[in-house]
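re: ur question from earlier - yeah i can do the single chain one, its not a big deal. heres the input i used so u can compare w yours
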Amino acid sequence: MKRMKSLLPRKIQKIFQTPAPWMKKRKTYLLGALFLLGLGALWLPFSIWICQLGITSLGPIVYKTTRKQKQKQALERQWPMFLQALSSNLKAGQNIEQSILRLCEKTSEPLGHELRIILAEMSFGKTLQECLRDLASRHAGFSTESLFLASQISAKSGASLAPILQRLSIGLRENQKIKGRVRSLTSQGRMQAYSCSMLPVLLYVTVNWISPGYFSFFFNDLLGKVLMGACICSLFIGFVLIQNLSTIVTDYD
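and the output i got, formated as tokens:
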């Protein structure tokens, strides 16, 4: 394995030598969370400590989901320009591997990282179709699926890949324009979901600050706790319903 890696170009070898930064972040977060939970168990009431435990447990899940969604959106925005440049390089007479290697040097993350993976796999003997199939399995989306199908059509029919990539780039660019327009038209519904969900919380904080103990019934009495739980569930269900009504979902979302 080491001998095979030594045959690769230096820029491709860096992908195997880069440590995983998320391992260090996960250890740091775990130590910090245990420290804060220990302090909370000593000084905070049990009910507040339970809330702290829930926030600490859900924090990494929310962060990972948000980061993955942002990475997917950034990757989708980079595809049209990359496919246009790749089509121009192929028309100029370069082969596919040379074109990807030249564009990889100028492409930012996260697409640059995926291009380095493709170059490494092609250096180990995989075909372009196999590399694009692996890319589509890692990042399921309209762009990656379309690119994989375009490479398959070009390989089976013998047609030139350059005009296919150019038409695909134009189609992806128009698709992103339509998605942006739909998102702007449905932004009012999403803002209504956030405002309607935060209004009861802000009202509770304001009234409790003006008159402390006004909502003690909801925390000391059994019926009050049941009503508080029903209110929280109603807020959550309403937020989810408004978000679903104001979001256009496709097969690749």
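The first helix runs from residue 2 to 6. not sure if urs matches, ping me
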